[in-house]
Specification:
With 470 residues, the protein is α/β, with parallel strands linked by helices. It folds into 2 domains: 135 residues, Arc Repressor Mutant, subunit A (Orthogonal Bundle); 277 residues, pyruvate-formate lyase- activating enzyme (Alpha-Beta Horseshoe), CATH 3.80.30. The radius of gyration is 22 Å and the shape is globular. One of its GO terms (biological process) is porphyrin-containing compound biosynthetic process. One of its GO terms (molecular function) is metal ion binding.
Length: 470
């Protein structure tokens, strides 16, 4: 079945979700809303017994020579719960933290001798959360020593510690930098004091800038910050000031993320209860995205991926690009996720279940999923689209049936979402804002072409407008 025939079977609403809205402004009305949080294809769930057996089998085999590998370590603690965040797991308790780090080190040490880990190199380690910088200096030192001992780091490794500006204290920074951290990723979200405080952030604008300067003064690591656009009370004027503060801060890079408001979230409830102002609509966020793109481009920031920007050559954002490309990622810690040789992995999210598994000498798997047989091609699409391009000739060289995707991209070019430069398709600024939609539709069309089944789906995600009208 050709792509045109597949779309002809859909309702007008479904076609709009897949193809976008014909005749509308491509930036603000290119699609009804963002379709998915992360683009991808579904896989097949394994039983826990199968998962344990599969993990042991994969870790017993050395990696392919010269293969890039990554490690993700999760720290599931936060001092406060921010309204917008969906990743909060546990508050801070020193006794609980001490015990957790004991189990985390045990999990790391258990894999230390495995052929898969030890007979290769690890190019990136990302310590995420939660708020990893909330760890006590003692526990941070223990963890960093274990990383150096258990993980075969490549000479040019990137070791990122994620956290909050509030934790940038000399006694902690000394430990991080002496322990091998060479990249700090800090969640500023907004420099505006009112915007920050009502979301649960602790420090005012001047404190944020002062603490960033104190870290930069070490000259020992890359410093990048996260900014979110579309927050309550963050109108275009506030967003413009946030970007000016970013430039003035002197940090090496920034990640610009769109706010998503979901049903059941604390932020959505606060908005409904009129305790906090409404978040920006998707159309307003699109304009903020375009302004941020223009602001950073004019100041010679380099776009590393859809959300990630570098101010200089120190910032590489290796972990993020490797994750999107589907590079092997070993997960460690409660709530950690990863992937290995065609399997997606998620560790237990609850401390008791995690600690029980580690205590039994098991990998603390909550879920192991066999990825789609098309995952290799899908990862190629995701990787390219994250960089704002798609080479259809490259895809067609893997399977001629994918030539039919040309119809889809010609349509999107007519609508102002992509541009054919004669070699590949480049996403326009509107196309970059709607990149997740374009990627997911591409993946589902690819799957339909290669399997002969209609796999197009409609997903209602991030409908900011509906929440504002409630």
């Amino acid at each position: 079945m050709e792509i045109q025939e597949i779309f002809a079977l859909l309702t007008p609403e479904q076609r709009d979700f897949q193809l976008g809205i014909n005749g509308a402004d491509p930036l603000t009305k290119g699609f009804p809303r963002k379709r998915v949080l992360h683009a991808g294809l579904p896989g097949k769930m394994l039983s826990l017994t199968e998962g344990q057996q599969t993990w042991e089998r994969l870790m017993a085999v050395p990696p392919v020579r010269r293969a890039e590998q990554s490690v993700y370590i999760h720290i599931p603690f936060c001092k406060t719960k921010c309204l917008y965040c969906g990743f909060f797991q546990n508050g801070i308790d020193q006794v609980v933290e001490d015990r957790y780090v004991d189990y985390l080190l045990e999990e790391l040490q258990r894999e230390e001798k495995s052929p898969r880990l030890q007979q290769g190199l690890v190019h990136t380690v990302f310590i995420g959360g939660g708020t990893p910088t909330s760890l006590s200096a003692r526990n941070a030192e223990r963890l960093l020593k274990a990383i150096q001992q258990c993980i075969p780091l490549a000479n040019d490794y990137e070791l990122t510690l994620e956290g909050r500006v509030h934790d940038l204290l000399p006694e902690k920074m000394d430990v991080w930098l002496s322990g091998g951290v060479n990249r700090m990723s800090l969640g500023v979200q907004s420099f505006n004091t009112k915007v920050r405080r009502q979301l649960g952030r602790l420090d005012d604008k001047e404190t944020v800038l002062q603490r960033l300067r104190s870290l930069l003064d070490y000259h020992q690591c890359v410093v990048v910050i996260d900014l979110i656009y579309g927050l309550p009370d963050q109108d275009m004027a506030v967003w413009q000031e946030d970007l000016k503060a970013l430039e003035a801060s002197g940090v090496d890079g920034a990640d610009l993320y769109q706010l998503n408001v979901f049903d059941g979230s604390a932020l959505n409830q606060a908005i409904k209860d009129k305790k906090i102002a409404r978040a920006a609509t998707t159309a307003q966020q699109a304009k903020m995205f375009a302004y941020g793109y223009d602001f950073l481009t004019k100041r010679a920031y380099k776009r590393l991926s859809n959300c990630h920007w570098s101010r200089n050559n120190r910032e590489r954002s290796l972990y993020n690009s490797m994750a999107k490309a589907g590079v092997t990622m070993f997960p460690f810690g409660c709530g950690a996720g990863g992937s290995l040789d065609g399997y997606a992995i998620m560790n237990h999210r609850f401390l008791k279940a995690y600690e029980a598994c580690v205590g039994k000498g098991q990998k603390p798997l909550m879920v192991m999923m066999q990825e789609s047989p098309l995952e290799s091609i899908a990862r190629s699409v995701i990787d390219q689209m994250e960089r704002g391009v798609l080479n259809l000739n490259l895809l067609a060289s893997r399977d001629e049936r994918l030539k039919e995707l040309r119809w889809l991209y010609d349509l999107w070019e007519e609508r102002g979402l992509v541009h054919n430069n004669g070699v590949l398709f480049e996403l326009t600024v509107p196309g970059q804002f709607w990149q997740i939609n374009l990627t997911q539709t591409t993946l589902e069309c690819m799957q339909s072409l290669l399997t002969g089944k209609n796999t197009l789906a409609v997903q209602h995600i991030a409908a900011q407008e509906e929440r504002h009208d409630s």
